[in-house]
Write a structure and sequence with these properties.
8-stranded mixed sheet; 8 strands; alpha/beta; single chain; 12 helices
Length: 298
């Protein structure tokens, strides 16, 4: 992308794991925001990888906060900037799924209800990855974690619909495997006033148990099987991304097996014997999510 800035805000030598897709997404997000940002980070992988004291892995101001308080902290930062007459700096929460789906959802709801002018980003690796891979509200049905050894018995929370009920000024899903799309969505969000939310699908090689070089392939298979839907909503105007529009028809999607088989957390669905019942439940949930998203937004 010739138009993408050459400046790097995610620096070399940070403490991220090999193959970390969080750093890929964060890199392109910061390029879109061009460094004019204050990043608020609750407890999550990013709070671990951003620095090895006394050095830093990010070339922007970062404010670490409590697990439950990211959106409330961002509201305070926004108010402080307003008091100084600064209306151009983006205040961005960068939180994992645990700090968004579960522990941070109350503060998120409050900040959106107050119409805080900020950008909340949930990078969703579907597990409490930096504390031992415990299940979160974003962990998918039948996925193994350190607290769901036989597979999770509940599907993930449909957080996008919860956020949509707060009528954000901007809302989108993204995927680290599609960096150009991610970059452009952050650019658009930057120019919109009011509460904004971007939900990023983010494979995690450590928690999902796949070879580190497979992150992009798994991210794209999530879209091609219909598991992850790419879309954008500005005010009431909703549109499917072209990359997901083609998979709106279930007949055009790849089998969900292609997405699952690359991940060790789903290996029990295929070995020692294929579990057709549980695979069918996953397929049904994928379509259920499509139906709800399309019925809600269109």
């Amino acid at each position: 992308m010739k138009e993408m800035p050459l400046e790097e805000y995610v620096l070399k030598g940070n403490a991220a794991c090999a193959g970390c897709q969080d750093m890929v997404a964060l890199r392109h997000a910061h390029k879109a925001l061009e460094g004019d940002v204050i990043q608020v980070v609750p407890a999550c992988c990013t709070s671990v990888v951003q620095s090895l004291w006394p050095k830093t892995g990010l070339a922007v101001p970062v404010l670490n906060t409590g697990f439950a308080a990211a959106a409330a902290t961002a509201s305070g930062v926004r108010a402080a900037l307003a008091a100084k007459g600064n209306d151009h700096t983006t205040v961005m929460v960068w939180a994992g799924d645990g700090g968004t789906f579960d522990i941070g959802i109350q503060a998120l709801s409050g900040a959106f209800e107050r119409r805080t002018d900020f950008l909340y980003v949930c990078y969703n690796n579907q597990v409490y990855s930096n504390t031992g891979t415990q299940r979160s509200g974003a962990t998918p049905l039948h996925a193994q974690t350190s607290t769901t050894w036989h597979g999770k018995t509940e599907p993930e929370k449909l957080l996008d619909l919860v956020v949509a009920a707060h009528e954000p000024a901007y809302q989108a899903t993204a995927n680290a495997a599609y960096p150009r799309d991610l970059y452009e969505k952050f650019q658009r969000a930057r120019g919109i006033r009011g509460p904004k939310f971007i939900h990023i699908f983010l494979p995690c090689p450590q928690a999902w148990n796949y070879p580190v070089e497979k992150g992009v392939e798994i991210g794209k298979l999530a879209v091609e099987t219909g598991y992850w839907i790419m879309w954008e909503r500005i005010g009431e105007e909703f549109k499917l991304d072209p990359v997901s529009e083609r998979y709106r028809d279930p007949a055009k999607r790849k089998p969900i097996d292609e997405f699952l088989k690359l991940q060790g957390r789903f290996a029990h669905l295929f070995k020692p014997t294929r579990d057709d019942k549980k695979l069918a439940e996953l397929e049904a949930f994928v379509q259920h999510r499509w139906d709800l998203v399309m019925r809600t937004f269109t």
